[in-house]
Design brief:
Strand content: over 45%
Structural class: mainly beta
Strand order of the largest sheet: 3-6-5-4-31
Number of helices: 1
CATH superfamily of one domain: YVTN repeat-like/Quinoprotein amine dehydrogenase
CATH architecture of one domain: 7 Propeller
Shape: globular
CATH class of one domain: Mainly Beta
CATH topology of one domain: Methylamine Dehydrogenase, Chain H
Radius of gyration: 20 Å
Largest sheet: 5 strands, antiparallel
Length: 365
């Protein structure tokens, strides 16, 4: 078995902190040591327990594949089946493993297993005031219409404390103030998608409002101006994907942009967008990239990256320090993917092979 040595880097810049892997398996991808360190969660194919964790060491420019099993050899099935989301909160790294009905909790510096939060059909995770909030596709207790729920868990004990019923097949969430906004998709019933955003008061943990947005919602990201950017996937036919802007002071849709969005990342005043829109009519994907200025709510670029090598863009993240743009390519969803790094002008800096279906990138700060 290969040996990995992990030490905590004691550095003046928090963006360089994290796992330091001294392994012959590490791939040196760049001599630029100004980039921030990050983890990448590979989703893996459903039913195969293929979820894996990669790590990029910004201090060395090294990329390390599939580190979890080496660090945690006693975890029999490693991370599990279908990694769907990942975030850092405090000194812990949380990976939502949808097909394994659990949230894996690790030390953010070493990726050492600390525990898990058990939530059926878990999808996304958010945090507020020492609590983790996990959306679930599973039917809420007492539900007769297939409504999902959000679970509240203690980040110290990993115990689920409360649950609240939301819409059908809830997806991503965002916290603004003391409110949690949940995007409901209704993805199990394409003839009757959900179209709402549930608003949860985190003190009482009750749904205080339901905002009508559009069908088949997925992503929801908060900007620095009290607005949420909510994506609708449409119906893949005659109703196109679209971006909606929701005011958290009015709790209402205030604007929309005719952009087909499969994923986005907000950094500063810019929302970086990737678009992979499937059409049942043409039987093909239309791929694009764009930037929206969240202050002016206007499109400022319709093609910040021109890279024909990317087959199927999937995950996106922006370095909080350098503004480098990371985009994952899942290719045909069967073979190992590729991670691409572009500078803020869209010029390619480097690329590296990842695990299967590279999905979520989380920076260590």
């Amino acid at each position: 078995m290969r040996k990995w040595i992990f030490v905590l880097l004691v550095l003046s810049a928090c963006r360089k902190s994290g796992t330091d892997s001294s392994s012959s398996e590490a791939t040196h991808v760049t001599d630029d040591t100004n980039q921030s360190s990050f983890y990448l969660l590979n989703e893996g194919n459903m039913g195969l327990n293929q979820t894996s964790l990669d790590y990029f060491n910004g201090a060395k420019g090294d990329y390390n594949l599939n580190i979890y099993g080496e660090i945690n050899p006693s975890i029999v099935k490693e991370l599990g089946d279908v990694g769907n989301d990942m975030k850092v909160y405090g000194n812990k790294l949380y990976a939502v493993i949808n097909g394994s009905d659990r949230v894996e909790v690790m030390d953010k510096h070493t990726a050492k297993h600390l525990g898990e939060i058990s939530v059926r059909s878990c999808r996304y995770i958010s945090f507020y005031n020492g609590k983790a909030y996990v959306s679930s596709y599973a039917a809420a207790s007492g539900s007769t219409d297939g409504s999902g729920f959000v679970a509240e868990a203690d980040t110290s004990t990993f115990e689920v404390l409360r649950t609240v019923t939301v819409g059908r097949q809830p997806e991503e969430m965002a916290v603004t103030g003391s409110k949690l906004y949940v995007a409901n998709s209704g993805g199990y019933t394409s003839s009757n998608y959900d179209r709402t955003l549930s608003v949860i008061d985190l003190s009482s943990f009750t749904v205080t409002q339901t905002i009508d947005v559009a069908i088949n919602l997925q992503h929801v990201k908060a900007d620095g101006y009290g607005n949420l950017y909510v994506t609708s996937r449409g119906n893949y036919d005659d109703i196109p994907s679209k971006l909606f802007i929701v005011s958290t002071t009015k709790d209402a849709v205030t604007d929309s942009l005719s952009l087909a969005i499969s994923n986005l990342a907000i950094q500063g005043d810019s929302a970086y967008i990737i678009s992979v829109q499937w059409s049942n009519i043409t039987g093909a994907n239309t791929i694009g990239y764009g930037i929206v200025n969240v202050k002016t709510k206007s499109i400022v670029s319709n093609g910040f990256i021109q890279n024909q090598a990317i087959t199927t863009p999937y995950g996106i993240a922006v370095d909080p320090v350098t503004r480098d743009i990371l985009i994952t390519d899942v290719k045909d969803y069967l073979l190992p993917g590729t991670l691409y790094c572009f500078d803020k002008t869209g010029a390619k800096k480097w690329s590296v092979t990842t695990g299967n279906i590279p999905s979520v990138i989380t920076y260590i700060q």
